[in-house]
Amino acid sequence: MRLVFLGTPEAAVPSLRALVEAGHEVALVISQPDRRRGRGTETSASPVKAAALELGLAVADGLSALEGLEVDYGVVVAYGELIPAEVLARTPMLNVHFSLLPRWRGAAPVERAILAGDLETGVGIISLEATLDTGPLHGEARTTVDDKTATELTNELAQMGAELLVQVLADPERLASPQPQVGETTYAAKLSPEVFHLTPDMTLEQALRVVRLERAFVRVNGRRLRVMRAGRSDVPSAPGRIVAEGVSVGLGFADATMDLVFVQPEGSRSMTAAAWWAGARLLGEIEWE
Q1: CB atoms inside a 10 Å sphere around CB 197
Q2: Which residues does the chain have with pLDDT short of 50?
């Protein structure tokens, strides 16, 4: 098939590569414009644009490039903005969405599934509509959430989505007869910075889910401490208190203690919690917030 591909982050790259490997003609790749992606001032291409250039594909950075382009389908994977109805009227599009729709329509489906404690999630191929993630399903694949981090789960779903996309495009019946979404609708709202702020009133399970998003932090003596990896501790501690025994450093939550494994102090590199504690030289009963 002759296709146009719209995507931006690393999670969209497997689908692009899978389409090329399956022999589809990707006439154009549209990605978000180059921007700053690190601490420097220089701009860089999105992961999808970089992959497209490596594959020798034509690249554009705006939907206006679709005007006059004749393709069978557009394929959208985490492009970064809604596709207007007038564009969809000219070019039918399929969307690879990382959830079991209609659960977690929206911007952060993987993270919301983790935060909610979902046991299962998945990926779906839908016909794109102008409204948010409402289109009928051409195919779906499922996986367990377990204790996977957001990166681990996203990577898994990206691979599953790429495989499912190729299967759907190769099946005329699935393409022609998508099925309506069935179930309770929930929305995966964009994550604000406060979502990642651990607080003593959380249960340990809630806090560990936030840590699995890989941006969790607390404040100790007014300084930010990023919690990079953590587990469950058998050492008792009051909510909001830090307990240190040997090489074990724990944070007290509402119902149990979190065992800190790796942390990153403000303005420093990542390190073991024991190394941070030894270097911090905190005295007395230390509280965190």
Answers
A1: 16
A2: none
